[in-house]
Design goal:
CATH architecture: Orthogonal Bundle
Structural class: alpha+beta
Largest sheet: 3 strands, antiparallel
Oligomer: single chain
Number of domains: 1
CATH topology: Arc Repressor Mutant, subunit A
Strand content: 25-35%
Helix content: 40-55%
Strand order of the largest sheet: 2-4-3
Distance between the termini: 40 Å
Shape: elongated
Radius of gyration: 15 Å
Number of strands: 5
Number of helices: 4
């Protein structure tokens, strides 16, 4: 299991992450936290299409919320997702000094 990691977000980066987070991406992050999972396995577990799961994993990958590795599968290369974090903190207002 990956080590505990936290990201603290403000401003534009926070908006990008909030834009990507939905019930599906949260389920992906939670599932990939317990063990590395392929798009096929995530699709089966979440009962959603592989195309949709792949799109959601790509969005999480673009924001560095999941780590991706590749391994040989029965029919080509499998993309394996692992949650890159345990906690996301979003700061809505910066304290001014």
């Amino acid at each position: 299991m990956p080590t505990e990691k936290e990201i603290v977000l403000r401003g534009e980066k926070a908006l990008q992450v909030v834009d990507v987070l939905n019930s599906t991406t949260l389920k992906i992050l939670k599932a990939a936290r317990t063990m590395p999972m392929s798009v096929t396995k995530l699709s089966e577990d979440l009962k959603l299409s592989e195309a949709y799961i792949s799109e959601q994993v790509r969005a999480l990958e673009d924001l560095n919320l999941v780590s991706i590795t590749y391994e040989r599968g029965k029919r080509g290369i499998r993309k394996i997702s692992t949650s890159a974090l345990e906690k996301i903190t979003i700061i809505l207002k910066d304290e001014e000094l």
